[in-house]
Amino acid sequence: MSIAMDTPSIRSGFFEPFLPSLVEEMIDEIKAKVPEYSRVDPAYIANMREAVEGAVSHFVNLLDDSETSLEKLTEVYRFIGWGEAREGRSLDNLQIAMRLGARVALRRITVESERHDLPRSALGELAEAILLFLDELAASAAAGYHTASEQVAGEQSRRRRRLLDLLLAEPAASQGAVAEAARNAEWRIPKTVAAIALQERRTEEFLQPALPPDVLMDLSRHEPCLIVPDPDGPGRRQVLEHALRDWSAAVGPTVEITEVGRSLRWAREVLGLAQRGVVADEGLIRCVDHMPSLVIFKDEELVWTVAKSRLAPLLDIRARHRDRLARTLLACLQNGFNATEVAARLHVHPQTVRYRLHQLEELFGEALYDPDTRMAFEMSLRVWLTLNAEGRAD
């Protein structure tokens, strides 16, 4: 940085008589105009004085020697910016304080220049030099601030992931450990929570969801997940659905904080069923809307063993017709054997439904309408149709 003056009359000697009082004026102005810096803490005041005195002293030295190193001073201002971010303040107050200091300096220099009858050109050069100097310090402070902001964000992210790990731990972590981790992560422990299991959809660009700040998130896991406080609160579902529109997402049951691991297990179960096509992958999938499927497929080997016996009459029919009859029977069971409703669901004519139902009656007889066997039929059909679609029914 080169701010050496071409005008011989403006050198460090010009400032020496009023330098101490200038520093005091700058400090008083900053304390008066920036409430955040009007502390009575002796250590804080000493640090502010050191910063102001260091800046003024370096500037004066630069007037005599443009090669004077600014490294130590810029390091001081990087540290000041770093400290502002670490204490959770914005950079605005520091920038205001620096501008106030420059304004006081220009005002005092103007008075002194009139007293010494300095030419206006010299005063203009001096003002430009002050602004250039101020830019250097502001850039250093901003660099320190951004470095600390990234560090703070990283630390906060690690603490929140640590909290998420504790909440999902099995066996469950102690309440004391969870409470301490929540304090460190600045997260208020809610009355109820729900876990969300995630699966990234194949998109051209990875998009991290923009979620409310109280949602705990870890997308770096092999199986990404979220913990959502107060999941049944007003508007909560709409916010989550919008944020997760680029993900396949399933939300587990609403539970107390100590049972969030169970909520995540169910969420992952239903997300797995969505990947297999058992449940529709549309929007935010809710476990509570798919409990029958979750129960049926929790032990599909057992259900399949029953299915092979229960659906045996279908096995001798050619595959294409067998599939149509199986889907018709499932729709009949789910719609009370109402031919019109079944036809609408299958997108066929009601007479077609009646024809297929007659064939099913020939295969299964009165067992088709036995209340005690209807649930076994429905469970068997759902598993059989899923495995058939996956090519595993044989």
Describe the fold and architecture:
The chain has helices at residues 12-15, 19-33, 42-64, 71-86, 92-115, 120-168, 175-184, 236-243, 260-276, 291-298, 300-310, 319-334, 339-346, 350-364, 371-389; strands at residues 193-200, 216-218, 225-229, 247-251, 284-286. It has 3 domains: 12-150, Globin-like; 192-296, no CATH class; 299-389. Residues 4-8 have low confidence and may be disordered. The chain is built from 15 helices and 5 strands. Helix 12 packs across helix 15 (371-389). The chain has a 5-stranded mixed beta sheet with strand order 2-3-1-4-5, with helices on both faces. It has 394 residues and is α+β, with helices and mostly antiparallel strands.
Task: Please describe the structure with a list of short key phrases separated by commas or semicolons.
5 strands; Globin-like; 6% strand; 394 residues; alpha+beta; PucR_C-HTH_dom; PucR-like_N; CdaR-like_regulators; PucR family transcriptional regulator; single chain; 62% helix; five-stranded mixed sheet
